[in-house]
Amino acid sequence: MMVIGVIAVVLFGGNLPDVARKAGTIYREFRSRLNEVQREFRAAEYEATKALNPYEPSKAESEEDDEPSEPAAPKFTPPS
User: Fold this and answer.
1) pTM over 0.70
2) Of 21, 30, 40, 69, which residue is 20 to 30 A from 8 by alpha carbon distance?
């Protein structure tokens, strides 16, 4: 980290705060657009799943059930 810091100071000198601010802005914009694309893919996946299985309850609806679900694995019984 120290080496990278020294190289940054040598390359950018007095402009380092401006360069860091611009890099932060670009990174924030990149993450925002990436999140937007991920949201669109999730929405498309949800719509496709709903179109293929229109009568299957969604994940949110199935979580509202009061009945406890069956355990996924059988109960362990120690040998006697």
Assistant:
1) no
2) 30
* Contact (CB, 8 A) for 33 and 40: no
End-to-end CA distance of the chain: 59
- The secondary structure of 11-71 as a DSSP string is HHGGGHHHHHHHHHHHHHHHHHHHHHHHHHHHHHHHHHHHHH-TTSPPHHHHHT--SPPPP
What's the rounded Cα separation, in Å, for the pair 45 and 38? 10
Measured distance CA(31)–CA(24) in Å, rounded: 11
